[in-house]
Design brief:
Length: about 675
Amino acid sequence: MEQWENGRHRRPLLGRRRMLTWLAVGTVTAVGGGAALRQSLAGAAVTAAGPPPTAAPAALDESGRKWSDAKGWGGRAPGPGSAVRITDKVVLDADARVGSLLIDAGGSLVFAKDRSLTLESGGNVEVRGVLALTPDPAHTHILRFPDIDEHRFQGGGMTVVDTDTGLWVTGSGYLRLDGAPRTAWVRAAAELKAGDTTVRLAADPEGWQAGDELAVTPTAPPDAADFSTSYDLVTVQRVDGRTVTLTAPLQHAHPRVSAGGGAVFGAEVLNLTRNVRVEGTEQGRAHVHLTSSRPADLRHAALRRVGPRAAGKESWNGQPVTEPVLGRYGLHFHMLLDTSRGTVVEGVVVRDAGSHAFVPHNSHGITFRGCISHQTWEDAYWWDGPTDTRTPQIPSDDIAYLGCVASRTVYEPNPRGYRLTGFSLGAGTGSTARDCVAVGVQGATGASGYEWPENSEGVWTFENCLAHNNLEDGIFVWQNSEHPHTVTGFAAYHNGGWGIEHGAYLNDFGYRASVLYGNAAGGIAVHALGRDKGTVFDGLLIDAAGQSDYAVATLKHQLDGEQVTLSRSRLTGHRKAGVAFRATADGKPDDIAVLDCEFGDGPELWLDPDAPAPKQILFRKAGQSAAVALGKPAPGLAAGPWNAATSPATAPTPPRQVALPALKFTDSAPRTGRVTG
């Protein structure tokens, strides 16, 4: 073991023999068809390839000399000015502060399980060997970076950058963050009122304790003040079964929402506390960057004050704005290809982050289960998009978001947060989003809980996800897709825009068995026409709940395409009409079929007088056998309640019964456990 003390960020002078020894370990190894060279903190190259992913992690070796034993350091333990290199096995048994830390291949640093411990590092911590924070439930392990200067960050690249302070896992290094299990989130079992000091939960809050910090999500309708930002941040005083007593009363009301289709939602109560923490400070944010070929095990950890920002080139209202530092995110898996397969991230919280929270960039086979992003800037669950509108996004395959939450996602400045999203469902194959929640996403036009982004087509299994109380949309699609996509069991309530805003020009989506309730702009906006078979909205319950003029509206169609179909659905609660045909004169005309749907009070349809003559609008009401075609009324003739002329028409399918959704949403995050081994 060597200890260097030549300054926090300086490297020691190397003799010729040592330099040759270091150079000898540098190799280039083919990974996924490409040659990857990983660089170390001290500049030496290490191999990119390591042991293949395994189903069960190797047993953690917790033996080793004690950090507090000065003899192991040559008579003097490291201090705040020490650049520490570990080549053997060390157990952290006392709080410590260093200038920087390198855990070399073959070395390990394991925090003692039976103690609450804090390790602070003024500079980078690089893991080529093993770093493990695995406390028992009664103790807490913290890795903190207290001296970060975000102005010095450079960003980008595959190699460790001395000025970009954070946790780097390189070569074949292994990171284990394994805290005590906590149910990540549970829904409230009843309406919560301002002034309440107890919260009754709909499921067991496993692992919750006195002192835990909770975030209670907003649920108020979009005509209420601060409907997308009225969170309560509270502290647990006591837990009695499913009843949680708080140290202070709630400041906001959080109504329970009956959206229909069997879907009843209480506010999500997010537990933000973990007994493993990696964090920066309010003065400087850190990051976690993984390029190791060995899959990490990350369970029940909190990453706080991560995601540094830098001065931007633009201003807003005369004031400069900041922008994220490239590649320095909350939890960043960077271009690992197939070597990341088998990686599991469970119950991890990223909060108070200046940039993206969870980033599986060109890294395949990673499962995120019961994770939370809260109060983060930029898209929360995301990986790098295309460089321009003509270049496809680099894919990440077999990514799974299971019971994850994107909460309070923000942008600077908010009026420029176009297409900000909680979950960016990017390019790749075999990926899944199931039982997830997007809430409190801010931003501007096109911002949403879930986005299928432009030039980033990925075919996702998308099931039983919820978007509510986002400032704009629940779902935003803006793709010219080559493949069919299916959205099943989706619910969107109390969003400030549309439940689903569907564009861009031509694509084929199938939205099935979903509920859209009380969204301020309406249930569905249809920009895109069909590419091959056409988009189908089938078996939906769309209840405007008095919030919008229309349950469904067509908007500008940029290109002529195949017919879009709305079928076997119920539309109700609208102020003017169920479906409004509002194609614009500077685009292509409507080509829409509304078949076998039932409606609440008021006109079923309305043809905007400023819209061009439709290519085709077919209508057959539920329970009827005959279909009609709608067209522009002749000049001087009464248009009727639909503002349209009608003529007999033939529908493409025989009559069918309305098929209302019967949704079954889970009331809590999936169960998670500790690493075995």
